[in-house]
Amino acid sequence: MKNYLLLESGYIQTTYGVFAGVDAISTYPGGEMESLRLSERNVIMTEIGELIPAYTENSRRKNKVSVEFDRQGLVIGVLLEEQQEVRTPIGELPAERVKFYSTGELYRLFVLDGQISGFWSEADERELNIPLSFDLGFTSFRAMLNGICFYRDGGIRSITLFPGERITIMTPLGEVETVVGLSLYESGELCSVEPAEPVLIETPIGRLTAYDIDQNGLNADSNSLVFTKDGRIRGLMTCDNLIHVQTQEGIMKTFAPKEKTHPLYDDAVTVAGMNVGFDYQKNTAIIDGHEFSLSECGFTTGLFIRPGTHCTPADCANCSVCNRG
Hints:
Blueprint: E1 5-6, E2 11-14, E3 17-20, E4 22-27, E5 33-38, E6 44-46, E7 49-51, E8 67-69, E9 75-88, E10 91-100, E11 106-110, H1 122-127, E12 132-135, E13 140-143, E14 145-150, E15 156-161, E16 167-171, E17 174-184, E18 190-195, E19 199-203, E20 206-210, E21 225-227, E22 233-238, E23 241-246, E24 252-255, E25 258-261, E26 269-272, E27 274-279, E28 284-287, E29 290-293, E30 298-303, H2 313-316
Antiparallel strand pairs: 1-2, 2-3, 4-5, 5-8, 6-7, 8-9, 9-10, 10-11, 11-14, 12-13, 14-15, 15-17, 16-17, 17-18, 18-21, 19-20, 21-22, 22-27, 23-24, 23-30, 25-26, 27-28, 28-29
């Protein structure tokens, strides 16, 4: 069902009032307005305050729409004209782009949203950022952020670091450094963290080195080292271990990270990390998708030597996708 009304040229009536200077709109297949681009100043009233959607162009602005709507005509995203303070469940924070749940609560906040290019570097973008302090109860830190994601009830869902930031998180297993960030359960306990370096973890099947060689850092909603609410290991990714399993039938099986072509060099080989998880209610370990009883199977862990050439420290300074050894 159409959720807007075209008025005179450049004006559109929506649930939020009349938008002026509408240069373009896009619609869902059913005809409902999905987004619009603006060339005049407008103000939108939201749960996080008055927002001024982007209406001018500049050299660092991404090619994005000014306002996004859901099919019912409710605002679910706003690219802001400039960074402004917005009200969040944890206080006022600076933002250049915000996303909402369809019921109006703040979903995700981006502190900055500049387009990295040959004319605007990550270092330039960093100059615009400011460090923020957090005390999450189990850990505290101060760092520049890429963004924060919230649960619908206002609790923090994840905190994603700005590129180049590194913080130390206190986990149930001790301190873990991360350059990506962390996620929380809705009740506030640590859910997951992305280790910056391989970290040795004690698990129900023995010691494993947790590290995801393919961590991308886009956001910290889902990370490779996962905990249960009561602080036990729920899952991890390993690129450095073999796991031998003796099944209930006495059969020996061996699992290892899989080799794959290096994403940057066709003639080089790297590995895809192997997922290991634990279901404490079923008392099982899930290794590379295969489930085994923790009480009825035997487990032995060993060292896996990654194939391929290893980068030099100079290489690592310029590339995050490598075979660190």
